[in-house]
Fold these 4 entries.
Entry 1:
Amino acid sequence: MSTQHLSDRINNLSVSQTLAMAAKARELTALGKDIISLSLGEPDFNTPDFIKEAAKKAIDENWSNYPPVDGYLELKQAIVTKFQRDNGLNYQPANIVVSTGAKQSLYNIAQAMINEGDEVILPAPYWVSYSEIIKMAGGIPVVVPTSVASDFKITPYQLQQAITPKTKMMWFSSPCNPSGSVYNREELTALADVLKNREDIFVVSDEIYEHINFSGSFCSIGSIPGMFERTITVNGVAKAFAMTGWRIGYIGAPEFIAKACTKLQGQVTSGANSIAQRATIAALEAAPSEIGYMVEAFHKRRDLVLHLVNDIKGLEVNVPEGAFYVFPDVSYYFGKTLNGVLINNADDLAMYLLEYANVATVTGDAFGNPNCIRLSYATSETILIEAFKRIKEALKEQ
Ligand code: PMP
Ligand code: GLU
């Protein structure tokens, strides 16, 4: 038996580099190596008690039947209220679909909207799974590169240049995984202006890091005049509420798209986990200030990590305004030999750091930027200090 028996679809699919690196770190740890994993993006906090209590109550109240495919009405109502409260977006319950993580929300959208050969604009760096999810639907990712110099944000001119008659959508995250960049209202308005004369282009706005934002303000592109009807707003509870394992994501979308996603989900997974849905009602009804302690901790760690990164020769970073990653440009090391190892690219550097610093990171290649590596700072300050000490040591040139 071998891969020849598998579908072309699966043979052509890349493994998720974030999950692969996390698995590798776990494997090495199990072998007794002292690995610090800065690979996987997940909060190191526990799910807040008030959410856990809501889940326990849901179990006791026997919320154990199949839930509606698109989510419980009370949850959809809580999402509608959340979108109005935080984003100025006026969705109705018919616009909402709850899924098994924002990852499934994204997959649904791709399958529901993309035809073979449709182009999808991806400002790079983009979140690792976008390109594979788009390709699985037959779409063609059109990658628009950025760099530290532009705070990893695309300009209206770049967007204009990327548009062709085949452009179907643009997908982006703000705050961005992996760069931490946050587009402000002015910048989003300028991008929306470019899209004005192409009303057939839809935008996927992935706002899963919305609350982990140190910039002081947040803007959903769907709230820019002219954008609501063609924006699919993706969000979830994994990051802000430290609920990665609960697997709840959701969208707000034009009703015909919501219906299409529900149709697909109804044939594939049915409604998302009933207990997690009930718990999510409690999470979304809470004031965002309830999770302020986590955001504050991430902010402090961001400042610490910037200080630590800037202390290492050859790493060039932007100031990430949100999420919990730094995405240094490491191209200074390309072509250099460290401890006898020739570093040709970001993949080599990530593997080198794993072996010589025992620190797991993710190559920027997976995010569409081959000059960078991603490090998650969703871990304690003590661990971060130790990790960067090791990295600094390993990157010393002889
Ligand atoms: N979008 C972005 C930008 C992410 O970083 C993640 C990471 N998990 C997801 C979507 C998927 O979220 P979920 O865990 O809810 O599937
Ligand atoms: N979103 C997280 C990350 O980028 C989790 C991993 C994943 O879902 O792929 O690390």
Entry 2:
Amino acid sequence: MNALKNVPVHVSIIMDGNGRWARERGLERAAGHIEGVESVRACTEAAVEYGVKYLSLYAFSEENWGRPQEEVNALMALMFKSMMAELSNFMDNGIRFVVLGHRERLGDELNSVINDCMEKTKENKTLTLVIFLSYSGKWDILQAAKKFAGEILAHPDRSAELLSMDTDGFDRYLVTDGIPDPDLIIRTSGEMRMSNYLLWQAAYSELLFSDVLWPDFRKQEFLSALQLYSKRDRRYGKVK
Ligand code: FPP
């Protein structure tokens, strides 16, 4: 039975430690990424089971393009294969699949399977699974600022109204428009930094750092994170 209190609406995970997991076993780094996909599946199932409505995963940053070409290719091939394989699972479990990031940098083949998965799952309501791909927080804020400036230039008659916008108004220019800010951000593998992730959206997220490497982060670890979150006292800068 689900006896959890205060289940977060949106859980976001910085998946880290695939390379170390592989190295500890004398394997290629790609083996860590392959095993990491099993953790993606396990955490997605757990999110559905515990009633989390949004699960987002930092799968590939803008900076990750600087990794050796062989690893980048292996990761992109793995994303492609996983998306092809999981579509029926998304449909069976009511999962809406969304990819956010600098999509122009992804290949046509990958973009086409992403479009297909997003279109076919768009009415699903149980869980929204967001994959951040070729994403960085600074890039997101910059593209939002450019959109905003473009709107002012296109509508000079509305410039005063547009410039009176508050921070909630700016949300709609970010790629996460329509997705609530994460309540809980988990980073695995013992590293404690944001790595250019959801810099704007994380303003009041609870942060949780786990020593477990991503390929070992499964249902039990996800549940433990939800239990720790349920004990947090969120005040949003105010006094209770
Ligand atoms: C970080 O570990 C992990 C990544 C950069 C890739 C994560 C991607 C997956 C698990 C595949 C996801 C697939 C889908 C369909 C979402 P690292 O390589 O930085 O590990 P290290 O810090 O130990 O070197």
Entry 3:
Amino acid sequence: MQDQHAWSGRFSEPVSELVKHYTASIGFDYRLAEVDIEGSLAHAAMLNRSGVLSDADLDAIRRGMADIRTEIRAGQMEWSVDLEDVHMNIERRLTDRIGDAGKRLHTGRSRNDQVATDIRLWLRGEIDATVGLLAELQQSLLDLAERHADTVMPGFTHLQVAQPVTFGHHLLAYVEMLARDAERMLDCRKRVNRLPLGAAALAGTTYPIDRHYTASLLGFDDVCHNSLDAVSDRDFAIEFTAAASLAMLHLSRLSEELILWMSPRVGFIDIADRFCTGSSIMPQKKNPDVPELVRGKSGRVVGHLIALITLMKAQPLAYNKDNQEDKEPLFDTVDTLQTTLRIYADMMRGVTVKPEAMRAAVLQGYATATDLADYLVKKGLPFRDSHEVVALAVRHAEQQGVDLSELALPVLQGFSALIAEDVYTVLTPEGSLAQRDHVGGTAPTQVRTQIARHRARLA
Ligand code: ARG
């Protein structure tokens, strides 16, 4: 009787249909096919160099794998659930093609170190792609920030108008966040980029392997130095998903703001029609569906993080089948983050800004009250007293329905004799901005300096 499974020699009955489907991972891990082949070719080359595999066998493996790769790329590979996972599907296909040489490939290796290697190879490529997409979104935000380095908008605390900022400055806050997200990804990449292969099932192998050689063939910076750890921990996947969660959280914050700004009640921006949808019943509606979905999808990625953390928690050494469950959350995290970044970069190019509405909101909110207080302090009044003076002036302006900058000089002087004609340079939003002229401040010259710094960093 032909073995159903590579491992079924000692079993007296085949697994039940239900169990077969329950334990199979081919339904999702076929995604690792290309890196699985890459890892196998490096392993075979190492075995050959160490004298474990003949030249003829290595040649046959190389030819067989090249054909299988072509077949996979052409969508012609038939994945079988009977063969459980991507590793055994490819190995069986190889053996069908080249015979015994295919059966020798698995010498000194286990699926445990094989799958750990595959995930690391795959994730390394996806980290690089994600960092590229993060850069693209940052560029798109920088373009918009540059056009609005001088555009006055209200800065908020507690969602209430606080002090004037520029729209460019506001956008740069997100560039900072995304820059840290990329930094986190690249830091995580260092720990992803280590080779588990050679750990075999858990204890290492009796063959004279050269793990550093395999590592160099696969572009790994180092090998994992403990075989038990190498096959069992998925902390690198958790780390990546945590970094991805933070990136999604940042995008959920920007999404919330876009939704708010686009609300007709606020009217600061408009988002191009191609990112919005209408209502099937209310003809007047234009809904910001994309930012809303991003906000929603951020929850999904955080969910994957929790799933992976919970998966790893309390697992005894070394490999346990639990770890097969690492793939779907990881794959979906990558897919969700990458498509979100792609669509976001394009959406930000489709944002139209309404500077008059932003400026009007600044004036309505007495956003320069702090500037008046600072002005009085610079003229010698203690801050607590000046806070009081300005509160009274704001109350008066509010009663008159005007902005502080619209109060006549004698009226202002009624609140403090220290006030002179030069007060108007700080009471206007532009005056308020210009004075915050230090690193990290909102003055338009500082905003331009930061834009240049980011551009140089991303170049
Ligand atoms: N499909 C398995 C996984 O994803 C491969 C490793 C299986 N190893 C084992 N001893 N059952 O983790």
Entry 4:
Amino acid sequence: MIRNPRLRNREQANNRHLIDPYPVHTLKRVDQPTTRINEAEVFRQHEQTSGFYRAGRGDFGEHMQQEYRRFVPKYPLSGAMVSMAGALADLVDEPVGMGAAGMPDSAVPKNMSWAPMGQVAEKKAPFTDNPEKMARHIKETAYFLRADLVGICELPVYAIYSHQKQDGKPIHLNHKYAIAILIDQDWHTSRQTSGNDWISNSMSFLAYSTSGFIACMLADYIRRLGYPARAHHAMNYQVAVPPILLWAGLGEMCRIGDIVLNPFLGPRFKAAIVTTDLPLAIDKPIDFGLQDFCAKCKKCATECPSGSISDKDKVMYHGYEKWPVDVDKCTKMRIGNKQGSGCGVCIKVCPWNKPNTLFHRSISWTMRKLPFARRFGVWGDDLLGYGKPDYNHKWWLDLETINGDLQVPNSSKNR
Ligand code: SF4
């Protein structure tokens, strides 16, 4: 088993022209995402319509409003991660009126010689006008910063939120390109968890905070090359992530509602985005047979503890043809979970949630290429016991902060 998800595979090591850690060059590329999108019907969403925002506002009652404030920090590790992610909230774009190292202009010493932090450089850097070379360079830079997968697309206008969550102000974003950065939530931990125990939120925030950290640095780097760029991460989005992932060739929409599923990571990742005007060659959407696979599998719908995921057919919703999901039920489950912190059972049980080993890459290839094998794939997944927690290797501590005290919860699997 490859424990380090960042280890590049042997194929890449032997082919220096391959820059991606996963064999994305083997995927079938298509002109349109496999999810039908009726662009005339897609409207730009107000970010305050999200389930979590509504919970924090009190739309689901006082108890949920209180739980919303503690459902991540009630577990000490996810609390540490959300603090770090929060520190990145104001580092997404060039600071207004700030100088070097984030100091106010008035406080910057006159003899300071380096470029002010985060500003778009006045002169464009040499060698930045070739879109093919720059796309390759930006991907290599993101991988150097420890991204797991990267894709690039033109930014669809309908992916831009209409209004900000923080202050409700209208969003004016006119960047041409979007760079999507995926971070794996860790297979080693995913194998052990039930999906809704005490490590669940930490897996999410590992990927939220890391992808946000990389996006903020990448956006700052691009601004230093002389082009506008803004990072978008869990603590400060101006764009909806799923349509960008579809167009950037990083996955297909799956049965788990608005979730995009990647052929190498499954749904076990979180993403951050950089939008920019730096000229970049774009990727194309991918088709690995997921629409057919999800139509047959339905494992997430069966296992979802809140019954939020439908086992029925797709419907047209806000211009997307997708499987419906009950966002309110899902939000209440994740916030109100008394047996753990958060919930990701759908991610845990998905047959595409596998390690990057030769055996699993072979199975994945078969599922992608041979439609008749897909039913056997779901059956074999159950037979081999994937989807069940493996607490024999559990590494984390079960703890819950209650009224300021750390306690061992009744649901603890500590051994
Ligand atoms: Fe699709 Fe099955 Fe994964 Fe659900 S569990 S997203 S139906 S492949």
